[in-house]
Amino acid sequence: DAGVIQSPRHEVTEMGQEVTLRCKPISGHNSLFWYRQTMMRGLELLIYFNNNVPIDDSGMPEDRFSAKMPNASFSTLKIQPSEPRDSAVYFCASSLSGWGAFFGQGTRLTVV
Amino acid sequence: GEDVEQSLFLSVREGDSSVINCTYTDSSSTYLYWYKQEPGAGLQLLTYIFSNMDMKQDQRLTVLLNKKDKHLSLRIADTQTGDSAIYFCAAADNYGQNFVFGPGTRLSVLP
Questions:
Q1: pLDDT tens-digit profile of A39-68?
Q2: Nearest CA to CA, how far is A111 from chain B (Å)?
Q3: How big is the CA angle at B72 (ends B67 and B77), to the nearest 5 degrees?
Q4: Are the beta carbons of A42 and B101 separated by less than 8 Å?
């Protein structure tokens, strides 16, 4: 398996623009997580899905952020409108039961 | 909810052993993990231990769990410069979900 695949790897956008981050989890995994990592706040859980259903979105910063998982092999995290403080590395991870979360390489987002 | 704490920095000499410590608060956490993050990369799962275990060894890595004190440690034997990275401790509930990560320990290996 190729592991968790995220795209794009890097994204630079202007403030106010819509940004969509994509994730393909490991086949057969039933949970998917979106994390944000910054120097100031460390690794933050934004939302997680189990069997394509959002279970906990309490970490989503505000209404500008939304996440979807239309099927078991694809998820998106959308920011609209984007702001400079959204600049961070966004990670997607997937897991199966208790065998650990496997992370993608991340998307480095810069909002100017 | 669960809270996971780690010291932020550790420096060791090449060839020495490194011990990275972690504490957690929720005694019902069933799965405990160690991850490694190298610059510009995602988090890599290194090893895990179940709450009904005291120790797990995997090549140069030894994980010790003191469930009474809610203390987890990762020992890296014969530390190499390639081990320089940030190490994260994480805890998950008995469904293997609701992962909570510590702030990470930056390990520097000096030649």
A1: 898 899 999 999 999 998 999 988 999 999
A2: 18
A3: 135
A4: yes
